[in-house]
Write a structure and sequence with these properties.
Elements lengths: L2 E6 L4 H12 L6 E8 L2 E8 L2 H10 L7 E7 L14 E2 L5 E6 L5 H10 L9 H12 L4 H10 L5 E7 L6 E6 L4 E4 L4 E4 L11 E4 L4 E6 L2 E6 L4 E2 L3 E3 L15 H7 L1 H9 L3 E2 L4 E2 L2 H4 L2 H6 L2 E6 L1 H16 L5 E5 H6 L8 E7 L5 H12 L3 E6 L5 H5 L2 E4 L12 H20 L4 H12 L1 H9 L2 H11 L4 E6 L4 H15 L2 E6 L16 E6 L5 H13 L3 E7 L5 H4 L2 E5 L8 H18 L18
Parallel strand pairs: 18-19, 18-20, 20-21, 21-22, 23-24, 23-25, 25-26, 26-27
Antiparallel strand pairs: 1-4, 1-10, 2-3, 2-4, 5-6, 6-7, 7-8, 8-12, 9-10, 9-11, 11-15, 12-13, 13-14, 16-17
Helix pairs in contact: 3-4, 4-5, 7-14, 7-16, 10-14, 10-18, 14-15, 16-21, 17-21, 18-21
The structure holds fructose -6-phosphate (F6R).
Length: 609
């Protein structure tokens, strides 16, 4: 969602801020803006659309001079996509200028209060309300004014604030939305995530909820909103520039699909004890006893992460031998859930910042569950709010459509299931066999990736079709859901994913001449049943694209197009069968001329409920 970059130091801020915004573009946004403290006071430039539009505007103005500034990419929540609603916002009295991510929930009451005090608003945003509030409370000390304003606010925020009367200072703060402070040599970059910082420094301070940080060229001071001073921890950012650059690929999504073998090798590295047939998960070891005694696992997440959680549910029951459910975090949270003793909740999330997942996790914790995280971003809020967890280690995911995080999540959940299973009922022989097969998943994905051209050719045949079905059973039912989601989000083609058996209960009415139906038809326990479902589609004129197991010749007699994946145990098949679906979605979006890495209306990390 929205992105923040702020700079104070000795360099010209404008190019640095624009470069930072470009690094944050992947988060999703619909307008952008910058504010600089210049010799002639505060200058603000904003534009609807891409950061490139903002750059054009700045160029036409001859550029802005100054070494302190703020920049922002906005993903609209309160108020439409207009220049007036774009950030930064300023107050009308004290020379305050502010950028904000999140939602100020009591903004209407605050706005009424401020209007009564004579302030006049120029936008529909909750952010302008916050800028006015800081201005209203300003008495010559920006840090104190920000602390005082935040004490009045309910909701979520990451903010960066500057003031004409204190030209060498940025004050930033967070609650619920991520914000880090990059620490350079007499220069500091405040940003929503590390990708906007690593080109300049790898040292950073992560702010906790309710932390306020005052940053000047000389250093920084961290406190709470009640002004209790805090000793911050400076950490090393584990991110290098190569990881966040395209290299030879055309899009980040493509790069990340092709990175999956390497990414999963990282997920597995050091976590398999081949001799004992055991999984070694340092993060879980001290909770092993609680896990063995657990009665139930509840997996939760949103979108792609939920699909991984759904596969996790099958894995937990099949390999971990523990009752498991998987559920949308947004629904779990509000249905007054019953959490019995011995419940383990597993929050699955790439970003570790998804508001619904975080809220569900907190709900489960409050009701006594042991909270685990399966998260990619190190140090993210979910990773910090859980009792223990497993990092995906797949590297930064920049493409808005999640790909390598999905296979990383499924790999990590497989490890957790075997970790549990071996401590419950799974034999050493079975776990040794599964771990051996798991280690071979990356090389098998490489074999699927080699078929990229074939997958593109098949996609070309159907790309004009506006309605698609994705069908699978068992472990591959969530993969069908994931295939449909990938296609929807980047190619804007309507697609439905569902259990293949469900088709007869209604959706079969959709099938007409030439409608593409993608079946995940690998050789698993339900292969014959899937064949029957394929026959039902064919009988009604639908076109079947089958994802099948190498060596299956029969499938060619029933499906118009076949994409092969290597043979493997059914429980590991999702990591292979999803790859052709990711590539189909990618090619469909490119063929339709869409901006794959910046799909309309989407944000990479959804930090509002
Ligand atoms: C789809 C996609 C989203 C995310 C969802 C959860 O490609 O990226 O559906 O999976 O917003 O995000 P995380 O995993 O960051 O919690």
């Amino acid at each position: 969602m929205c992105g923040i970059v702020a700079y104070v130091g000795g360099k010209r801020a404008e190019p640095l801020l624009i470069e930072g915004l470009k690094r944050l573009e992947y988060r999703g946004y619909d307008s952008a803006g910058v504010a600089l403290l210049t010799d002639e006071g505060m200058k603000i430039v904003r534009a609807v659309g891409r950061v490139a539009n903002l750059e054009d505007k700045l160029e036409n103005l001859g550029g802005l001079q100054g070494t302190v500034g703020l920049a922002h990419t906005r993903w609209a929540t309160h108020g439409g996509v207009t220049e007036a609603n774009a950030h930064p916002h300023r107050d009308d009295r004290s020379g305050i200028c502010l950028v904000h991510n999140g939602i100020i929930e009591n903004y209407a009451a605050l706005r009424t209060y401020l209007e009564e005090k004579g302030h006049r608003f120029h936008s529909e945003t909750d952010t302008e309300v916050l800028a006015m509030l800081v201005g209203e409370l300003y008495e010559g000390d920006l840090e104190r004014a920000v602390q005082a304003a935040l004490r009045e606010v309910t909701g979520a925020y990451a903010i960066a604030v500057i003031c004409e009367r204190e030209p060498g200072t940025i004050v930033c703060a967070r609650k619920g939305s991520p914000l880090i402070v990059g620490v350079g040599n007499s220069e500091f970059i405040v940003a929503s995530d590390a990708s906007a910082i690593v080109a300049h420094t790898t040292q950073a301070v992560t702010l906790e909820d309710y932390n306020v940080c005052k940053v000047t060229r000389e250093g920084f001071r961290t406190s709470t909103i009640d002004d209790v001073e805090i000793t911050p921890k400076v950490m090393q950012l584990e991110l290098d520039l190569e990881q966040i650059e395209l290299g030879t690929f055309s899009h980040f999504m493509q790069k990340e699909i092709f990175e999956q073998p390497k990414a999963l090798r990282n997920t597995l590295r050091g976590r398999i004890d081949e001799y004992e047939g055991k999984v070694v998960l340092g993060g879980l070891t001290s909770f092993a006893k609680d896990l063995v005694k657990a009665h139930r696992v509840l997996l939760t997440g949103q979108g792609t992460a939920l699909h991984a959680a759904m596969i996790g549910r099958y894995l937990m029951e099949d390999l971990g031998k523990i009752p498991a459910t998987a559920e949308y975090a947004s629904e779990f949270r509000y249905r007054n859930p019953i959490i019995e003793d011995g419940t383990v909740v597993i929050a699955v999330s790439q970003s570790g910042e998804t508001a619904d997942t975080l809220a569900a996790l907190q709900e489960a914790k409050d009701r006594g569950a042991l909270a685990l995280g399966v998260v990619n971003v190190v140090g993210s809020t979910i990773s910090r709010e859980t009792d223990a967890g497993v990092y995906l280690r797949v590297g930064p995911e920049i493409g808005v459509a999640s790909t390598k995080a999905f296979t990383g999540q499924v790999t990590a959940l497989t490890l957790v299931s075997i970790f549990l299973g071996r401590r419950r009922l799974m034999s050493a022989e079975r776990s040794m066999m599964l771990l051996e097969e798991l280690k071979r998943v990356p090389e098998r994905i490489e074999r699927v990736l080699e078929q990229d051209r074939t997958i593109k050719r098949v996609t070309e045949r159907y790309v004009e079709r506006n309605n698609w079905l994705f069908l699978g059973r068992g472990y591959n039912y969530p993969v069908a859901m994931e295939g449909a989601l990938k296609l929807k989000e980047i190619s804007y083609i309507h697609a439905e994913g569902m259990p293949a058996a469900e088709m007869k209960h209604g959706p079969i009415a959709l099938i007409d001449e030439g409608m593409p139906a993608v079946f995940i038809a690998n050789r698993g326990p339900q292969y014959e049943k899937v064949m029957s479902n394929i026959a039902e589609v064919r009988a009604r004129g639908g076109h079947v694209i089958a994802v099948a197991t190498e060596g299956d010749e029969h499938i060619k007699t029933v499906a118009q197009d076949v994409l092969y994946v290597p043979d493997c145990p059914d429980c590991l098949s999702p990591m292979l069968t999803v790859v052709p679906l990711q590539l189909m979605a990618y090619h469909a979006a490119v063929l339709r001329g869409h901006d794959v890495d910046k799909p309309r209306n989407l944000a990479k990390s959804v930090t509002v409920e």
